């Protein structure tokens, strides 16, 4: 197989996957989330798409693999394999700039950077009050941009999000937790 | 009609992996019991989300245990579902602590803190496992356990430092739970084999770090751990408390009644 054909097939696969939405946050694509790690051809010319799952228990993982397979099938790219790669572990640092912007517009505060080698700092219960200064890791309100926010719940509608409210505009919002 | 039980074998590497997988699985089973019963909606969601992470971790660990078992002479590579649902009680190797009934909310959050702290320390070390798959599972799970620990610790302090009633309940929970913790650090041949082969640390290697972290948390919460006696529970050797049979009866019922049934 010549180089141009190889590139063509890989490029076609990327294009086919590009619009596939995340099943739980459909405003994001899988590429925005950084779940699609690699598209490659093996020696026999079989196409392989490598995905890295987000959370160990994320119930969307199977749906994500199936929707990638559907998109490849629809683009006439069979035969192909969709495989899962566990290492390196998925991190919210892989969410694209476009993805962060889309999250904000959707009303979800995007995650801040995961400190290298640290992940989430373990801290004990911190009482919040309207007059307390905001901690630097706290998300700002995706609606009015105020940094004065407080956490209502450590877990939101899914494990990857927490529930917050803005102390300025009083609106509740979700935060995509850095992990 | 029932499905025959499977025999996962006594290979130490498989036992080591099953202990971790069962630790996650049985803890998740108890947490899942809170679905629809937590004191507030946010905690209902939080506890079941923790359970979901733990089930995901258990799935990966049990899958790995099945693969390693097959490499080491088991007649088949048992899959995650067979290992989760078709073993006899004596073949479940979780420490007794996590099979105890869920208790009240204070008991639940205190057990969560004890387990999540232990898990964080274990996952941290397992990132260096010579088994690349186990190292990858650990790197992923570590990130999750940090959130679990933080959430549980928040509640332990909040209850300990709350009303006289919440303080009393947390202290009661600590008095009941503490005697089950020595098992989390007991040395044995399975651990020695894992340490020697580079599969993972001995559970005993976590003891000092765990005690230091728990002591800081309990101090902050204003409660005191009782002295532990000489009795050490034996769940991770397959000898369980009276509660385990009932837990398994509920957990295994569907697979036993409808063999191979799927959603």
From TrEMBL, chain A:
PANTHER family, per the entry: 1,2-PHENYLACETYL-COA EPOXIDASE, SUBUNIT D-RELATED, FE-S PROTEIN MATURATION AUXILIARY FACTOR YITW
Residue ranges constituting the MIP18 family-like domain according to the UniProt record: 11-74
Record-given protein name: Phenylacetate-CoA oxygenase subunit PaaJ
Lineage: Bacteria, Pseudomonadati, Pseudomonadota, Betaproteobacteria, Burkholderiales
A family per Pfam: FeS_assembly_P
SUPFAM superfamilies the UniProt entry points to: Fe-S cluster assembly (FSCA) domain-like
Source organism superkingdom: Bacteria
Transmembrane segments: none
Organism: Sphaerotilus sulfidivorans
Recorded coiled-coil stretches: none
UniProt domain PaaD zinc beta ribbon: residue ranges: 134-177
From TrEMBL, chain B:
GO BP term, pick one: phenylacetate catabolic process
Pfam families: PaaA_PaaC
A GO term from the CC aspect: cytosol
GO molecular function: phenylacetyl-CoA 1,2-epoxidase activity
Keywords: Oxidoreductase
EC class name: oxidoreductase
Organism name: Sphaerotilus sulfidivorans
Superkingdom of the organism of origin: Bacteria
Enzyme Commission number, as recorded: 1.14.13.149
Protein name per Swiss-Prot or TrEMBL: Phenylacetate-CoA oxygenase subunit PaaI
SUPFAM superfamilies listed in its UniProt record: Ferritin-like
